[in-house]
Amino acid sequence: MISRMFERMCPSVLMHHRLIMLVPLSCALFLGLGIGMGFAQATEAEPRPASVVEGPAAQDADSPTAVVANLQQGLLWIMKNAKTLGFQGRYDYLLPIVQRDFDVSFMGSKSVGRHWKGLDAEQQSQWLGQFAGYLTSNYAAQFKGWDGESFELLGEEPAPRDTQVVLTRLVVPGDDDVILNYRLRKNSAGQWRIIDIYLKGTVSELALRRSDFSSILKNKGFGALVVAMNKKVDELRREGGG
Hints:
Number of strands: 5
CATH architecture: Roll
CATH topology: Nuclear Transport Factor 2, Chain: A
Shape: globular
Distance between the termini: 23 Å
Strand order of the largest sheet: 1-2-3-4-5
Radius of gyration: 17 Å
Helix content: 40-55%
Strand content: 15-25%
Number of domains: 1
């Protein structure tokens, strides 16, 4: 099921790279490895997990593992209630989760590399908003059903530059488990936030995005980057049934 999904979503990538670890996360996961593509879906929404977006658990998420656990709890709820919510409902639910658990400012600036400094304040603000919308749309499009998948936390370990990596596994019934590692750092307020995700423990989502976006910005300018991003978000919306 998953291999056929990859061939449909990323044929040009698989033609040259048969190893799953070389498939861009935007095609494979983004982060959900396309989980829910045609899988069974819930017909009645379950109660929202209290630790997601609102509630004391969200306020007390003061460790890297707690941040990732809250994110994955929200993603699992989205999967189980995907049909009831629809694309827009999934997007609306996920946006505050993305804004809370990811360091969007850090990731958005790094996604265009050294060209970030060449943007004026208005362009930077616009790009960060679009980047958050892109992350959210990607999740909303890929997490559109549930067939018994679950997340497992495997531990936490230190990483360079005062960051931490939370090791997790996506358990897929009837298929290989998927290792998903989240890298976090403290923001200016001292809160742990996600700054990168690694599929199979090695492929950096941030590096892949930087390769895509910085090339467009360098060769065609900011206007072309905005157009390309809007086009991608529209494609994700159609893919997610929106």
